Hints:
Helix content: under 10%
Structural class: mainly beta
Shape: elongated
Number of helices: 1
Low-confidence stretches: none
Bound molecules: zinc ion
Strand content: 15-25%
Radius of gyration: 12 Å
Oligomer: single chain
Order of helices and strands: HEEE
Strand order of the largest sheet: 1-2-3
Amino acid sequence: MAARPLRCRFGMHKWVLRHEPETEAYHECARCLKVRSPYPSPLATYE
Ligand SMILES: [Zn+2]
């Protein structure tokens, strides 16, 4: 498995807004493609 970008390993993702016609807008990391929920739980912990 390829190593993740160093900044992503530290939780410093490069969030970009994605929006597709059939889905809600969401944020995705431009480097590792991790998806972040646009509606995080109030109990969620932030990186
Ligand atoms: Zn990332």
